[in-house]
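Work Package 3 (structural annotation) set out to generate three-dimensional models for the target panel prioritized at the project kickoff. During this period the team completed the workflow that converts sequence records into discrete structure tokens, so that structures can be stored uniformly alongside our sequence database. As a representative example, we reproduce one entry of 343 residues exactly as it appears in the project archive.
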Amino acid sequence: MTDKIYHRDAYLRELDAEVVRTEGNTAVFAATIFAPEAGGQPCDLGTIGGLRVKNVTEKDGEVLHEMEVPDGADFFRPGQKVKMELDWERRFDHMQNHLGEHMLSAMFKREYDGDNKGFHLGEDVGCFDIALKEITPEMLRDIEHKANRAVYASLPVSVILTGSAEEASSYPLRKPLSVDGEDILVVTVEGLDCCACCCPHPSDTSQVGLIKILRTEKYKGMTRVYYKCGMRALLDYEQKHDVVTELSEKYSADEFTLLEKEKIADRKHEELRRELNRMKDRFAELTAEEVLAESGEDNVISREFESETVDDLKRIAKKLTAKTDRPVILSSEKNLCVFMTHT
């Protein structure tokens, strides 16, 4: 069994660890600060003994550390002491977004009796599935505001390592246990949530920083909710702010009048498109009359154009076939296209 120090101390970033055994490029240590992939959350990364950690998994109570070992480099030996160093920015990002998901799921359960049925934390965005067929924009805004107020309240987060599923089930869990065995963590957000979870979490809700719901989609009769927390949410805001600023400059508007200015511009563009189509239609009509006059009594009407597009050729051909039942062959030298039709 590996001593999973991250269960007791989510903030420990370095550790001198003893190698228990190795297999290929994978090592097992007596203790570790690296949390494995679990519960929809990616594993921790960092370095051990100067080598980069490629993947971390758990099997039969042991935490397996797969390493990037350059060709010819020495690997670890049993009994050797090596220094573990977490990629702390990645770990804290996971902690922020995982606790944020707990808080949002708790709010959906409390306010709308919506159960969480799945969770995935990606490299850029997190998502979870709520057993509600319909979630309105008003419901999303309500949940988001209440979750962020819980962030501002700095609610304490406690993590208790229980010795059995029976002991874990004695707590007021938001949803029934889906696992059995020993070393089950129960994570409690004071006054808001209690659930079993195997990942590191912040010590209070203020460290989540910011919770932002991005969008939803229908998924297997439920609703999938996409969200970002902490630095992810800040960076997302920065990117969108840059887009809004650029568009505001383009349309000479501020963020409050931008949409109306954009709608006005769209209407003008639509008028121009309609006028352009009318002109193209008139040009096609005149060109078709010219081509037809030049064709005389030829069995096939043909013309090679210099730069017309295939759409231009289709317009002209349509006008021609309305005037004659002879085959029509039109081509464009510049665009290397040929359009043929026969009624």
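The two ends are 80 Å apart (CA to CA).
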